[in-house]
């Protein structure tokens, strides 16, 4: 079974909000892209 994308977005938004921007999927992605160079596949 798949987990709905919209639910993941909501979880991420709440996680970022209540951690004062310290944690969340989007925070991890930004660190990965900025600090480690990232890859194009990450966004696909």
From TrEMBL:
Name the Gene Ontology molecular function terms of this record.
tetrapyrrole binding
- Residues forming the GUN4-like domain are 2-34
Q: Which Gene3D superfamilies match?
A: 1.25.40.620
Could you tell me which InterPro entries the record lists for this protein? GUN4-like, GUN4-like_sf
Q: Name one Pfam family in it.
A: GUN4
Q: Which SUPFAM superfamilies match?
A: GUN4-like (SSF140869)
The protein depicted here goes by the name GUN4-like domain-containing protein
């Amino acid at each position: 079974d798949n987990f709905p994308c919209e639910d993941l977005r909501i979880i991420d938004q709440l996680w970022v909000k209540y951690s004062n921007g310290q944690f969340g999927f989007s925070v991890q992605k930004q660190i990965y892209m900025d600090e480690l160079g990232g890859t194009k596949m990450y966004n696909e």
